[in-house]
Design brief:
302 residues, mainly alpha, DNA polymerase, domain 1, hpI Integrase, Chain A, 2 domains, elongated
Length: 302
């Protein structure tokens, strides 16, 4: 079976599961190998505990296996092995031959999300001011950064923004984000002023053929994400800010500045286009206790 110690009587169910993945799910050969290795290791562990059937596996034994993964291996490896066991036991339960124990959780070995540090207002203004407004390219770059910081757009949303999605009169932008969800975003007066200046004094000199994209490359084509990343990092360095300032940092800074200014967490969730408020909470690194304090301070019922 490819391992030093086989799972014995537990291996038959594993083969059943792997056959299912291959025949019915079309899983790749490499993935099957990974599942097999992970489940053989789990089977060997439980065999040493005198477990002869997956259906007799108890929650305590699953916990012991999970604890064994916390020592001597990378977190990513432990996460994968536990995820493999969870998928396998879920399969057995769906066939009414799984253990009565709850499925193992898989969150314990996940790495914490590596979030960027928000820029201060002074730093953010220095980055914005690093673009030269006397050239069409500089105006374009200023508009790009203004849209990400001023409106909280994802870089993909900024570079694909169309002229008809700009509502200059009402200072708003219509964005169709992930999963086709549309949201309207109010745009700060200064941000819209820079966008209008770019449209008036910069975009026309970049146009090479008919296009409805707001932001154009130096050659009049669609501005690509990689270019946006490179330019923003360059402007940050020009402003004396190191550490890899990216479009995500600007969007993160937008959210943090809104919340520091007293914006409602739910409103920020809608502006960012997050499906879950939990994502917004993690994204902005806000302590939930701090959010509760704000609501308690504002709500008439103490």
């Amino acid at each position: 079976m490819g391992m030093e110690e086989k799972a014995g009587p537990l291996s038959e169910a594993v083969e059943w599961f792997l056959d299912h993945l291959t025949a019915e799910k079309g899983v790749s050969a490499n993935t099957i190998v990974a599942y097999r290795n992970d489940l053989e290791l789990a089977g060997s562990f439980f065999s040493k505990l005198a477990i002869n059937s997956w259906s007799s596996l108890s929650e305590a034994e699953i916990v012991r296996y999970e604890a064994s993964l916390a020592v001597g291996i990378a977190r990513s490896t432990a996460q994968r092995r536990l995820s493999s066991l969870r998928s396998f036991l879920k399969f057995l339960k769906s066939r009414n031959v799984g253990p009565p124990a709850d499925l193992p959780g898989t969150g314990g070995f996940k790495r914490g999300r590596s979030l960027p540090k928000a820029l201060s207002l002074d730093q953010m203004l220095q980055v914005l001011d690093a673009a030269d407004p006397s050239t069409a390219f500089g105006l374009r770059d200023r508009a790009l950064m203004e849209l990400i910081y001023g409106a909280g757009l994802r870089v993909s949303e900024a570079v694909t923004l169309k002229m008809e999605e700009l509502d200059v009169e009402n200072a708003a932008i219509r964005i169709t984000g992930k999963r086709g969800k549309t949201r309207w975003i109010p745009v700060p007066e200064q941000t819209m002023a820079w966008v209008e200046r770019y449209l008036r004094d910069g975009r026309q000199s970049l146009v090479r053929s008919a296009t409805n994209l707001v932001l154009l490359s130096d050659r009049g084509l669609a501005l690509i994400r990689q270019t946006a990343y490179k330019k923003i990092e360059q402007y940050a360095l020009r402003a004396g800010i190191t550490g890899g300032v990216s479009p995500h940092v600007l969007r993160h800074t937008y959210a943090v500045h809104l919340l520091q200014g007293g914006a409602d967490l739910r409103a920020v969730q809608e502006l960012l286009g997050h499906e879950s408020i939990a994502t917004t909470q993690i994204y902005t690194q806000l302590d939930l206790d701090e959010v509760k304090k704000r609501y308690r301070a504002a709500h008439p019922r103490k």
